[in-house]
Amino acid sequence: MINTLQFIENNDLRTFKITSDKENNLTVESGRLAIIECSNKNKVAKPFLIGVGEKFEIHKNKKYFINLLVSNTRISLSNHYNLAIEDDEDAQKLFADIDDYYFGYEERYKKIYSIGADLWETGKPNESLLMVFRKYPNIFKGKVIDLGCGEGRDTIFLHKQNIDIQGIDISHSAIEKAKDKIGNFNEEKSIFSTGNVLYLNKYEDETFDLAMNMGCLHMINKNSDRLCHLQNVARVLKKDGYFLVDHCKSEWGKGFHTIEDYDQVKEQLKNFHKENYIDRMVRINGEKIKIPLKVIPYLEKSKTDLIKEITYFGFEVVETFDTDTESFGNSTLALFRKTI
């Protein structure tokens, strides 16, 4: 099998067309990109945004458009392929509305590690998970997935309780940190993987008995992205499977352990539509220091609206809790069961 490596480095982030005469796997080695399978004009083309460590199936004799989201993006493919610059305006328009805001977490983790921080999170399982684990131990039987697992604190905790769990996060840097903390870099056996929780395209239908979204859904603020995520959560869950969600209700940032003075920055936190930075607290060599980090988009949602949004996808409410933790602030913790 040919192991072909292609480096793509350009400043104008062009669109490319890729084809292959064999079944092929594209892997992002560095950077990130959006990719669309060409289809007839009557079908809406849906882009997939993929980052470091993610794989995408390139089917033989089909055409794909690739749009680079950052310069110095590097990809590899498992078989021979053809790559050409795509100057067709219609192809380029397919990517006009691409928004890779969710990759801001990769940039954040990478930045704090580069200055010597060991962790962005506390390293301990979050309080909401512990409460549900004590009250509903039976829902943690079978296969579990931790969506947006970050540095893996909840995944590692449940793994140590002999739970069959996998953790997935869009941040390659956070996943490498999680692997380091659990001491397992074997890709075939690791419980951690890099992936975009919007698509969950590496998982088959009805794979899991429990999906956990602990503080990830409120970081997905575009309605179309939330729709995509929730559709795929429903898809990968078995019937009667459970969905556990912790979602901020209001006053995003208040009580967070990384924010020293909420009142001082609360107006800036609301202004994520343009590039905006606030000081966040990180621990380096046992000492807390301030570091300016970009405000990443988020979405506050009332309990009523959150329930309405999730039950639309075939879930029923088991129980909800009002929580206020240093990880997620004023939140709704909700347990759902898939009914269809």
Distance between the termini: 42 Å
Task: State mean pLDDT (0 to 100 scale).
Answer: 90
**N-to-C order of helices and strands:** EEEEEEEEEHHHEHEHEEHEHEEHEE
Tally of alpha and pi helices:
8
How is the main sheet built? 7 strands, mixed
Low-pLDDT segments, ≥5 res: none
Task: Strand order, main sheet: write it out.
Answer: 12-11-10-13-14-18-17
How would the blueprint of this fold be written?
Layout lengths: L3 E5 L6 E5 L4 E7 L1 E6 L10 E4 L3 E4 L4 E6 L4 E5 L4 E4 L3 H5 L10 H11 L12 H9 L7 E5 L5 H8 L3 E6 L2 H11 L9 E3 L13 E7 L8 H14 E14 L11 H9 L6 E8 L2 E8 L8 H9 L3 E11 L3 E10 L2
Parallel strand pairs: 10-11, 10-13, 11-12, 13-14
Antiparallel strand pairs: 1-8, 2-7, 2-9, 3-6, 3-8, 4-5, 4-7, 14-18, 15-16, 17-18
